[in-house]
Every structure is written in C-alpha cells, then in structure tokens.
Design a protein that fits this description.
Shape: globular
Helix content: 25-40%
Largest sheet: 6 strands, mixed
CATH topology: Aminopeptidase
Radius of gyration: 14 Å
Number of domains: 1
Order of helices and strands: EEHHEEEHE
CATH class: Alpha Beta
Length: 123
C-alpha cells in the first residue's frame, strides 16, 4: 500500500464554536500566513508542499483555524494518519492565541470528524 486508506478525503469545512476550520487545499492564504510565522523563508515552500501533499495522500489532513467574526488565522489543526487507520490530532495555536480556549473545542470537533467521517481510531 502506498498510502493510508484516507487518500482522496473530501475537503470539508468544520465549525467549532467561534472557530471555522478550513482544509489546507482551500486555505492557501491562511496556510502561508501560519507557516511564515513558524519557519524561515527558505523552508515555507517545503512545509506548504508537505501539507498539501499530505492531504492528497491522506496521511496529514490539516485545517486552518480562523475566528469566525474577524476571519483571523489563529491556529492549525492536524490529523496525522497511519496506514493502520490510527490517527492523532494536534492543535497548534499561534503564539498570541495560546490559552485562548480554542484548543479544546477544535480538538473535539476534529476528533469527531476523523472518527465519524473517516472511521479512524484516535490516539
């Protein structure tokens, strides 16, 4: 098998309380904004490609997390999937949004999506 059984996952927007989660393939501006904050300029293109290819393969499903009212990018949420259909969810807030209360609701909605829509077993 060349990739996990989630390859070709449908691009689905999710809502978690006051936050909108947009899949990376349709959230290029948010992705670039978050990556530019975390990585040196020479590494941003490689990180973007890795995330977009991860979605295509189905083993790294990432979302841009935005405040619904302002549209500001506040975090990224990642679902890391193994070929055995096990997954882990990682929510990475922007430095200014640590402790903002987004981690719990975002983690919960992403876990429910991964388990319900994709049938993954979550760690």
């Amino acid at each position: 098998m060349t990739g996990p059984p989630t390859a070709g996952v449908e691009l689905t927007e999710l809502v978690a309380g006051s936050w909108q989660l947009r899949p990376w393939p349709v959230a290029h501006a948010d992705l670039d904004d978050l990556l530019a904050e975390r990585y040196p300029p020479g590494q941003v293109d490689a990180e973007r490609t890795a995330r977009l290819e991860g979605w295509r393969r189905g083993d790294l499903l990432g979302f841009a997390v935005r405040e619904i009212t302002s549209g500001a990018s506040v975090a990224e949420a990642l679902v890391v999937v193994t070929p055995q259909r096990h997954a882990a969810v990682v929510v990475r807030p922007r430095p200014g949004h640590l402790g903002s209360g987004l981690e719990g609701p975002v983690d919960d909605v992403v876990r429910r999506w991964a388990a319900g829509a994709l049938g993954l077993t979550l760690a």
